[in-house]
Amino acid sequence: MTNNKIYRASTTAPVNIAVIKYWGKRDPRLNLPANSSLSVTLSQSDLRTHTTASCSPAYSPPDTLLLNAQPQPLSDARSQACLTSLRALRSALESSNHSLPPLSSYPLRLSSSNNFPTAAGLASSAAGFAALVRSIADLYHLPQTPTELSLIARQGSGSACRSLLGGYVAWDQGCLPDGTDSKARLVAPRSHWPEMRALILVVSAEKKGVSSTTGMQTTVQTSPMFQTRATQVVPKAMREMETAIQEKDFEKFAKVTMRESNSFHATCLDTDPPIFYLNDVSRAAIKGVETVNEKAGRVLAAYTFDAGPNCVVYYLEDDRDVVAGAFKTVLGEKEGWVGEQGKAVKGAEGVLEGRIMETIRDGVSRVILTSVGEGPISVEDHLIDETGKVIL
């Protein structure tokens, strides 16, 4: 009797925004970083990738992937590294238990959707590969822990390894040539410091002019500052940041976050030719955060920028109206304030004024209000139906 059964598993995975940045590789083939990094996992109610992994003997090869209903290649080395590793783990299970169906031999049909702009400096590849790895691991009923699976996700997108855990997550650089010690590590769960909030100022939803992969390769090859950052600046920042998180010391968290963001972008500028991820609106946002802190008389907001112009502002829930309120007064007409979180923010008049206010108002297209969140979640909401058809 022909077996045409459709096997499915679905997962949502979060975006993470690094406060200690990953930039540069010590081994491009294995995607091993030149320095450790640390991030905050953000709430999936606001930012997430939803992926359904499906396989069946009824499917025709090759493996396929749809992202937001658009076909995406899976033939690249990074995707293949993830799929090969996951299939090898499933094959080992099948070899030890012959009653298991041979899922590892079936073609994969994958469908993903993002609820945020792809490739716009919002860590879309991190959430995407984390969701891909976790959904296939669930499909294959793999026993590996999130940290063990992070070794696979890392091969797809370095920062994806951090999106396999919730809360506050480190990606340890490691030192072994095979990369088996370069994986995600939980610094603290969401429950340790649940008051952390983030306001994302979306300056541009366009694809980056210089991709992260290209940018970091050029930096490694040409920046005199790079080695100092990787061997001295980042290790010190990692120690300080882990202490700040364990002690729930927001002022220290904020100062390290902002200093580290500046260090990262200074290294990009030190690259030949220089890489400009920030623009005038980004710089106005920096001035805006500095103004909020100055007028408050204490450090209650921190800015950080990944490889893109979008500004992420971290703050604590108790300071919501002071921090988010200052930006709401300027950006209240923009998309993003309609939900429960946005409506709860009270505007703070007279904080951001003059050219800073005008530049932010004219340059920010929308805002996203979010908070520290959990790791990937298995869901029953499938993007592929029981007949194997993708649900559009």
Describe the structure concisely for a colleague.
With 392 residues, the chain is of the alpha+beta class. The chain has helices at residues 77-96, 124-139, 146-156, 212-222, 226-247, 250-269, 280-296, 320-331, 340-344, 354-363; strands at residues 7-14, 16-20, 25-27, 32-33, 37-41, 48-55, 64-67, 70-72, 108-114, 168-171, 184-188, 196-202, 302-304, 311-316, 366-371, 377-379.
Task: Characterise the protein shown here.
The protein has ten helices and 16 strands. A hairpin with a 2-residue loop joins β7 and β8. The mean pLDDT is 95. With 392 residues, the protein is of the alpha+beta class. It has helices at 77-96, 124-139, 146-156, 212-222, 226-247, 250-269, 280-296, 320-331, 340-344, 354-363, and strands spanning 7-14, 16-20, 25-27, 32-33, 37-41, 48-55, 64-67, 70-72, 108-114, 168-171, 184-188, 196-202, 302-304, 311-316, 366-371, 377-379. The strands form four sheets. Strands 8-7-9-6-1-16 form a six-stranded mixed β-sheet. A four-stranded antiparallel β-sheet has the order 2-5-10-11. A four-stranded antiparallel β-sheet has the order 13-14-12-15.
